[in-house]
Amino acid sequence: MELLVAQRLTLLAGGSELLEGVSLRLSAGDRVGLVGANGSGKSTLLRALAGAVEPASGRLWRAPGVRVGYLPQSAPPIPQGQTLWHAASRYLSDVRELEARMRQVERSLGLSGAPADEYARLQSEFERAGGFGAEAALRRELALVGFTGADDGRQVAQLSAGERRRLALAGTLASAPDLLLLDEPTNHLDLAARVSLSRRLAAWGGALVVVSHDRALLDDATTLTAFLERPSLPGDGPARLHLERAPYSEARARRLGSLAAADRRARERDKEAQRLEVMAAELATFGKKAAARKRAAQRDLRRLRLGGALARASVEAPPRLATTADTTVRQGAPVLLEATALSSPPVVASADLSVRRGDRVALLGPNGSGKSTLLELLAGTRPSSDPTTELRYLPGLKLRLIGQEDRGLVDGVSLWEQASERVGSVRAGRLLAGAGVAPERWSALPVELSGGERARAGLALSLAEEADVWLLDEPTNDLDLAAVEALEAQLLEKLDGSGAALLLATHDRRLAANLTTEVWTLQDGQVARFAAVSDYIGSQAAEGTAAAAASLGPDAALTGPEPTQPGAAVGADGALESHEHVGSSATGAPAPAGADLDALEDRRSELLRLRDELSTLSERERGRVQAALDEVEEALMAAYGARLPAAAPAYRLVEGGLTLFADHLEDGAGRLNGPTPHDRLVVVVPQPHAEGSTSSPAATAAAAFGRLAAARNGAGGGLADPDHVLLDCAASWLEVRLQQQVGHLQFVDRTQACTLPYVRAALADAGARLAFTRLGARAVQLHHAGPLPGTVLSSASSGWWSLGLGEFLTLEGWRR
């Protein structure tokens, strides 16, 4: 089903055309990554799809009833005076409105007999919007972006811009829209939250359009890639949309290949055009006989020029952010930097470390874990709080720190002045232009630049110099996807050429994996090391699992009766009748003392999330989570069962005019439905009802089975106080056991009791029917010395009775 159709949209910005001829179709399951250079119109297109801006021309259609969730790039305004939980609950307004409308229709159904199809429609929409699990989903989304229940009472006015945006992301996802539009959702998210978001979006059931410079997220979560491409020359026209049906990395390789082929064809057309121009000029000197050939050559020339203008690819050169090292690799001592007792409580506490030549380290960790603090301590720009701290540099060491706020630029000094001072006035213009900064912005102060301009200019100026140790703090902030890839390739080339060491603090797992060979993270103030980014991510997932398991309470096993499974009844004609179990077992065993249904449901939801969302769990951890889930679900079934009447037996049969009941019974346990439920059945006929009794035969039989189980459990498998049992049950019952495909029938008689022969015959026939139809027996046998009038079993010598499967099928009419 198509949710949205955009046909030949034209979008304006500042009165001029920004996008032209944009066409896009989105169906449920389409997950599109929208990529393009800064300023190409990605955010404008998202606003148009969300209905926030109107296109200048074209057609935009949304399916009736489609719910759209839109996360803008900037933090959305939130009413002041609200707590975090109240602000988050605003995203559930749709599902709460649907619930209120359902209640109104329910009252109408009861009072005036209103049509039920309206209620069914509302119920379908309610469930699609999250239903009764919407609030739990919101809690889960808030936890994934770093908010716990302790944050519920925080005032919105106290939240930072990053926290407000994370709150908006959680609310947008929890609202479960049909069409999800996300503009840079990874901004302000740490690495663990980005991994969780990637998995969340990869499982999105509706349509998705996401703008992001996180390549790992685009590869993991999207199935299509839309490229917004600007013309090759400024002023040639607005950007256009090109769609590739593949995740980003594969789609980019395809697109680059097609652009390269188009560029080759354009060069060949240029050569042919030049040849035709020369030929036309030569033919102009020959007179009338050459006029026809001249006109043909001019027609071919015009056709080639038109084709070249239409088909020439729009290839934009990536910004130049890092220059290749001009010097050879420095020789000498391998240790460049040593630090002991570095301290800046609470994030860094007496840390010892060293940096060697050629080290490439990724500093990973959640927001606020101390990555920036550690870089500043190593650079000497932040003093250590421990007086015993020692920070030793190799003599003549060149160390460069590029912070995520200043970007290596000096406040109050124009961009041109800083560039001229660092690389000279001759190279300054070329360096700034290569970084993608327009000439009219060269005289601006750093505070006057946009985030992207400041990031590109600062990186280009800083990396134009040489260093032995580079300390980069979130260098990809405010960079578009092309700039991130350019930084990665150019920085790798620079490091290979110089042999310098790199300490990179980032949340971009693809950048960290491609540039570094080791991971450092701060844990309890100390530096912990991992061999690779994947190892770090796995450890974070394991820690999250352990923390969640710890929050579930003690390891004491929850015990209780297992839930009874749905069974079937056999009627007088031998057909199976449906008989649903909705309660606890016939034993009526109570739920665990103090069982709280809400708490058990919360524990079950958390265990399901751990099992289904954490793909990095080891087999042992997954087994522990599954075992805990099984115990919680058993306890839930017992708790729900304790609130409901006892379930009827699994089977009801009519044989010889008698109504009989059968169920599974396990030796030595006061419960039904044991580990091997189909290897043994018990058939009973309940006592006739006392006069005036309101109990049904099924309820009487359920009580009888409860007595049977209690009796067997109380005497190690033998009968306990049979006279007492006799009060609730018939004088005899029949046990059916399956051994090696043979159903063994056995009467069990009460002491001082007498069962009439026709009742025994009915029990035997019922046991044979169950052995064949429910246990899969190939034959049945029974040892009984007395008569069995009217039974389907055949009598043999020494009191044995038997029946084969073929004979049973013939009696039932299945064989002639």
CATH top level of the domain at 335-532?
Answer: Alpha Beta
Predict the CATH topology of the domain at 335-532.
Rossmann fold
Low-confidence stretches: 309-314, 548-595, 666-678, 714-729
The percent of residues in helical segments reads 25-40%
Strand order of the largest sheet: 21-22-23-24-25-26-28-27
What is the CATH architecture descriptor of the domain at 335-532? 3-Layer(aba) Sandwich
Spell out the CATH superfamily of the domain at 335-532: P-loop containing nucleotide triphosphate hydrolases
Q: Give the C-alpha Rg.
A: 39 Å
Overall pLDDT metric: 77
Class by SSE composition: alpha/beta
Strand percent estimate? 15-25%
Write a structural description.
It is a single chain. The protein is of the alpha/beta class and 816 residues long. Among the domains are: 72-176, P-loop containing nucleotide triphosphate hydrolases (Rossmann fold); 254-311; 335-532, Rossmann fold (3-Layer(aba) Sandwich), CATH 3.40.50.300; 651-811, Aminopeptidase (3-Layer(aba) Sandwich), CATH 3.40.630. The protein has an 8-stranded mixed β-sheet, sandwiched between helices. It has a 6-stranded mixed β-sheet with strand order 5-6-7-3-8-9, with helices on both faces. Helix 9 packs antiparallel against helix 10 (291-311). The longest helix is centred in the N-terminal third of the chain and has 36 residues, at 248-283. It is elongated, with a radius of gyration of 39 Å. Mean pLDDT is 77; it is low at 309-314, 548-595, 666-678 and 714-729.
Brief sketch in words of this structure:
Among the domains are: 72-176, 3-Layer(aba) Sandwich (Rossmann fold), CATH 3.40.50.300; 254-311; 335-532, P-loop containing nucleotide triphosphate hydrolases (Rossmann fold, 3-Layer(aba) Sandwich); 651-811, Aminopeptidase (3-Layer(aba) Sandwich), CATH 3.40.630.
